[in-house]
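Morning. Coffee machine broken again, so started the prediction first thing and wrote up yesterday's gels while waiting. Chain of 315 residues, entered below exactly as on the submission form.
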Amino acid sequence: MKKVLLTGATGFIARCAVPFLLQRGYEVHAVFHNRKPVAGSIARLFWHQCDLLNKAEQKKLFGSLRATHFLHFAWNVDHKTYLVSPDNALWQVASFEMLKNFRQGGGQRAVLAGTCFEYDLMNGGRLKEGATLKPASPYGVSKVRLYEEMEDYAGQEKLSCAWGRIFFLYGPHERATRFVPGLINSFLKGEAAHCRHGHLLRDFLYVEDVASAFAALLDSPVCGAVNIGSGISRSLGDIARDIACGFNKDGAAWLTVDRLPTHDPLSIVADVTRLKSEVGWSPSVDWTEGLAKTIAWWKQRLKERGNESADQTKN
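Came back before lunch.
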């Protein structure tokens, strides 16, 4: 039986990874910190509470589970602070400890989540895994250091390891302040929306496809860095217009798209050659379908909140 220890299991990506891992025959040991998800019993899915930044707790968990596989997403991802948070250094240290504890417990295959912010983004363009690493934030710096530690350790221990560099993503359960849900919620509230840097080109992938790609990478023998993206560039302005269309809104009346000056790189797009040719993975949800699913999820959430407020008023 393949046994995978999944960190960050209640997070944006990892929660979507669970069904893909189960489909691939894994016994999934999902780690949460504060609050266990409310869900019924699912065969081969087990939940474990652990503060992964606590060295003793972490060591006990890995030692008791002795997983064959390790898929690591846990990190500080607070939208307002994650790029500059001092927690990045803490997670770098804790993540490397996890990798060592995993190996010491007999682990065979590990995949850790990286980010496109590891690259030198100022030149922009289509980025290959061998592109220059020159992070411009503490978040990117910590990820690069962990990647380098992983590579060195994997070589010393003959451990099969891969590093999935995530580009941009969207979908249900994303934080409401992010770009896509921010626009969706403006339209849901009947408010006009504003896209400030509509000329910027970015590579967005639906969150379930991101999770599916990681499951495929874990289940493959591919080692080293692998970009996790769509390989398709879309302007932020076009994305905003597509969202407006999803609400049947007249863009001229409901949406303002500007080309304001910015220091952000014009284009950030993944070269996904390794993901497609070596891992053998391609997206299953296209942009139109993924956006429709995302809008539907936010509409349902607004409806549920309205029902909750009505019930509280009655009580």
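Residues 179-198+234-265+294-314 form one domain. Going to sketch it on the whiteboard this afternoon.
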